[in-house]
Amino acid sequence: MTLTNRYESARLTRRRLWLIAVALGLLMFSLAVTNSALASAMASARGVAMGGSINSLATGIDAARCNPALLGLVAHQERGVELFGLGADIHNNALTLDDYNTYNGEYLTTQDKDDILAKVPTEGLEAALNVDASALSIALGSAVISVEGVADADLNVSKDIIELMFNGNTIADTIDLDGSFSDAVGYVSVGLSYGRPVYTLGTRQVSVGATVKYIRGLGIEQMVEHTGNLSTEATGFAGAGSFILQTSTGGSGYAVDLGAAIKLNQTYTAGVSFNNFLSHISWSNDCEEHGYMFSFDTATVDNWDEDQIVSEDYTRELDGFTSSLPSNMNIGFAKTSGRLLWSVAYEQGFRRAAGSSTTPRLSAGVEWSLLPILPLRTGFSTGGNNQTAFSFGTGVHLGSLHIDVAAISGASLSPSSSKGANIALSTGLYF
């Protein structure tokens, strides 16, 4: 194990501005291509098109993703192979594409700055990237074998830092850095899902199900400590803070999803699921800890390079460390028969992490199959770590071949109201 400590006369302004530039660069990139994401079943084009609300409507491989208990209900079982599925999203939580077009390259007036700051939530400016891909997943009636690759990255910059950048500082200001963080994780999972009925009375049926996944970690960056503040006093600046990250390029572990579903009659189904109810990943390849600590007292422009400012940054090797995937609960209700289907869902995350939020999310969706070969879908969702958004999608179902696509707009039907970009594509053979 090695440990390198380096003390230097810190140029904190340059470092801070560099971090801000990186954060804003990610934000501008997300606005340049953008729309919003759905936390659940991103690789399911049907789920994305219906606002992520299909927790009680999903069938086959989608059921394994959303609620494995649905696999215990005959109407939700399928046999076939999903050849390929992809959901990709990049978004921010503050500015729309219309905002980007308005302010990009323009001189920002005081009113412009106030308008932008008003759009930034109290918890800070967030930019996120989420990708979910699957290939050659197999549905076998009440069982599903799935292969999935996931990449999630999340960067948040404290609102105080954004305000400092726009308006500078005044006497007696206190700037809180605690809201700033970055997390990223990538992994491949192989899962076995199974559902079975536990109670039947006429058309009413209750089922339970579970998904057990082996996880191969590809890489992780997690912030384990992030504290700090800066105050402006009559005699100069004072403050202290620390940022500690852990990184690795490989590991392995497991995750377990649990669910329950009830078929109320021939028309309506309800369900509840707990994704990543249990999870554990042990990271063992190229494990490192990276730390940066700083402190300064009565720093001014004249003494910025003197002893008033002390910083330490280090990198050390680790034998290993562990992490877990964020868990969430999803409750759904759906109309599951007829040409016009609909579904509603409530999602609650239990901790804030890359790809997850503790803010509840509500979603609803409709699927109309006037022509069985060409289903039309739309949805609406709000809350979570994504924007309020409308979603749209369709598919081509020719015999056993299914191809489905989906995309999301913003809080209105106009693409300019989007805060990111989200698309999904699924294709498979079902018999």
Question: Topology of this protein?
Answer:
Layout: E1 3-8, H1 12-33, H2 45-49, H3 60-66, E2 78-92, H4 97-103, H5 110-119, E3 125-141, E4 143-157, H6 159-167, E5 174-176, E6 181-201, E7 204-233, E8 236-248, E9 250-263, E10 268-285, E11 288-299, E12 309-317, E13 321-323, E14 328-335, E15 340-349, E16 361-368, E17 376-383, E18 389-398, E19 401-408, E20 420-430
Antiparallel strand pairs: 1-12, 2-3, 2-20, 3-4, 4-6, 5-7, 6-7, 7-8, 7-9, 8-11, 9-10, 10-13, 10-14, 11-12, 14-15, 15-16, 16-17, 17-18, 18-19, 19-20
Structural class category: mainly beta
Strand elements, count: 20
Give the number of domains: 1
Give the % helix: 10-25%
CATH class: Mainly Beta
Helical stretch count?
6
Largest sheet: 14 strands, antiparallel, barrel
- Report, as a whole number of angstroms, the end-to-end distance: 56 Å
**How would you state the average pLDDT, rounded?**
81
Strand order of the largest sheet: 2-3-4-6-7-9-10-14-15-16-17-18-19-20
The topology string of helices and strands comes to EHHHEHHEEHEEEEEEEEEEEEEEEE
Uncertain spans = 1-40, 299-304
What is the overall shape?
A: globular
Rounded to the nearest angstrom, the radius of gyration is 24 Å
CATH topology: Porin
CATH architecture: Beta Barrel
Beta-strand percent range? over 45%
Characterization of this structure:
With 431 residues, the chain is mainly beta. It has one domain: Beta Barrel (Porin), CATH 2.40.160. The chain is built from 6 helices and 20 strands. It has a 14-stranded antiparallel β-barrel with strand order 2-3-4-6-7-9-10-14-15-16-17-18-19-20. The chain is globular. The model is unreliable at 1-40 and 299-304 (pLDDT under 50).
